[in-house]
Amino acid sequence: MRYMPEPFKIKMVEPIRMTTREEREGFIRDAYYNAFALSADNVYIDLQTDSGTGAMSDAQWSSMMRGDESYSGGRSYYRLLEAGKEIFGYDYIQPVHQGRAAEKVLFPLLVTPGQYVISNMFFDTTRAHVGLAGGRAIDCVCPEGLDSGAYYDFKGNMDVPRLEALIAEHGAENVAAIVMTITNNSVGGQPVSMANMRETARVAREHGIVVVIDAARYAENAYFIKEREPEFADATPLEITREMFSYGDVFTMSAKKDALVNMGGLLAVREDAELTEAIKTRVISFEGYLTYGGLSGRDLEALTTGLYEGLDHDYLRYRVGQMQYLADRLTAYGIPFQNPVGGHAVFVDAGKMLPHIPYDQFPGQALVVELYLEAGIRTCDIGSYLMDRDPETGAQLRAPFEFTRLAVPRRVYTQAHLDVVADALAAVQERAASVKGYQITWEPKVLRHFTSHLKPVD
Ligand code: F0G
User: Fold this and answer.
1) What kind of fold does domain 21-50+313-456 have according to CATH?
2) Which of 159, 214, 299, 381 is catalytic?
3) Does domain 58-309 have CATH number 1.10.3370.10?
4) pLDDT by residue (tens digit) across 269-315?
5) Out of 37, 55, 91, 124, which one is annotated catalytic?
6) Starting from the edge strand earliest in sequence, which strands make up the sheet with 345-349, in order?
7) 9 is annotated as an active-site residue
């Protein structure tokens, strides 16, 4: 068990406050047991998401001073363009304000209502935008990805034989796109191998289907390929990234993850002039003029610098090493999680840890509440609570797993913070049998997990 030393030193700090258990009992009750409703001031260690929560470097902060705030044709845009072309090799690079903005612009251009879109696993917003465009989203992750206890190097992979079967069943003309999410967030930040990207692209090209890369965690995926796919042992993360993106036709990116910015995104096209023109029209309506895309010039500068920093090998070794350290500590305590650990988060298997709580009493959410009570740690449910209801019957849907996600912000927390997290989980595990499930007392119609009210089941 080794903690990979940070390849940086700390120049600026932000105080965080530890509260008492009694205070936290009040805060979470007042939040209706929904961690999204907590004031962040009352959170000690915030593992709710790794999105937009990272620390920027001194190079990023100083590059912001060079931001060109011209409405059109700003210098900062051209710098971003150069970087995007060098790193990803795509002809057209469009900044947008975040990942879902890219999805909103793109999917209605690809999907004709009634068509299918198949992914190794959709992130919620991507699934939502496929649906809003009239498409039907199908998850097609490899079977290993659904077995949290079993080790497999690339649990994020597309199930290619099933993909081929789905195309045969529905007809290639009814499949609007294939979405490759790297890393595969929803199954635990699990990587996709280069071999799998090649295979998926081969099938897509055979049938003339567009491949969209959902690229939020592209750099962590590149690092896993370097570590686990012998062919790439000597390649740099940048070289690996170039090849990964060669298997896509379009990519959407939330830059709030691996590109190390607090806000930003990209939408890029490898070589399709017609699609590019259509994208431009929609970007101007939804995001702003093409050369700023919903961001200020200084944001574009931080993003360009972040795209390179996120690919630094020493940084990635530390980043993934941090996750491995936390996972090793959980293994020592016998706490079940999606194994091996992913790139941005540890997905604790709350279904296994709290087996007495049925799926419709939300074991993942119960563990969210317990970790907050135990040590002021905020996490999120990736299980049945996250699922909306069946739109037709109103029935509670059952997720394939009941996870509690411990997403680690980039360059923010130290080894001692991770120790607090591991020890808190061990304390909850000790009293697991007494942990109660939850029921919803109020919920909105869609994306309920953000705003629902809950209460413990007696
Ligand atoms: N795609 C993936 C794989 C994501 O993980 C996210 C966001 C998005 C797209 C949407 O990007 O937030 O910039 O609009 N994931 C965050 C998370 C919110 O917590 O996992 P966005």
Assistant:
1) Aspartate Aminotransferase, domain 1 (3.90.1150)
2) 214
3) no
4) 999 999 999 999 999 999 999 999 999 999 999 999 999 999 999 99
5) 124
6) 345-349, 403-407, 380-382
7) no
